[in-house]
């Protein structure tokens, strides 16, 4: 792109981000970080979280620290960034760093947003959050999940023989 007179736009950088994601999955985090730092604008929160996620998956704590520093400098310290960083440290057994990240979250009153799932049954969308019992059919749902879990464990046991 540098050799021909093309000015990158938003779509170009989405493609670059996609390439960086693939590079991260391939373990080429240094290459991905070089591409990100060569962009004409600073990385945004999505790019930083994508890199943090790749660092977590690859167990690259040194690169994760660099990305976290860029996230802090860019003001991208939302709950998901903190959780990724904490999980990366936990995966590396750096429990002091885990405590430090969680302490910072408490000090800044950053709360982890619980993940939720949706399922459509007979044209109705049902939303679920872990441990949520507010759904009118939660008793039946959890009973069905327990039964499915037991069957799964039984069949897993049979497959191991």
Automatic annotation (TrEMBL):
InterPro entries: E2_motif (IPR046849), E_motif (IPR046848), PPR_At4g14850-like_plant (IPR046960), TPR-like_helical_dom_sf (IPR011990). GO terms for molecular function: RNA binding. One of its GO terms (biological process) is RNA modification. It holds the Pfam family E_motif. Gene3D superfamilies: Tetratricopeptide repeat domain. It comes from the Eukaryota. This is Pentatricopeptide repeat-containing protein. It comes from Platanthera zijinensis.
């Amino acid at each position: 792109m540098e050799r021909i007179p093309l000015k990158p736009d938003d779509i170009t950088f989405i493609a670059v981000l996609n390439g960086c994601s693939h590079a991260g999955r391939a373990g080429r985090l240094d290459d991905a970080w070089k591409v990100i730092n060569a962009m004409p604008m600073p990385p945004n929160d999505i790019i930083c979280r994508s890199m943090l996620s790749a660092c977590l998956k690859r167990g690259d704590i040194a690169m994760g620290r660099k990305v976290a520093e860029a996230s802090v400098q860019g003001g991208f310290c939302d709950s998901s960034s903190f959780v990724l960083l904490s999980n990366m440290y936990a995966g590396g057994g750096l429990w002091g760093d885990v405590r430090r990240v969680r302490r910072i979250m408490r000090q800044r009153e950053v709360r982890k947003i619980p993940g939720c799932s949706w399922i459509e049954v007979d044209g109705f969308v049902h939303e679920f959050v872990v441990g949520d019992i507010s759904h009118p059919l939660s008793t039946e749902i959890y009973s069905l999940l327990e039964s499915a879990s037991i069957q799964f464990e039984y069949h897993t046991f049979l497959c191991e023989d």
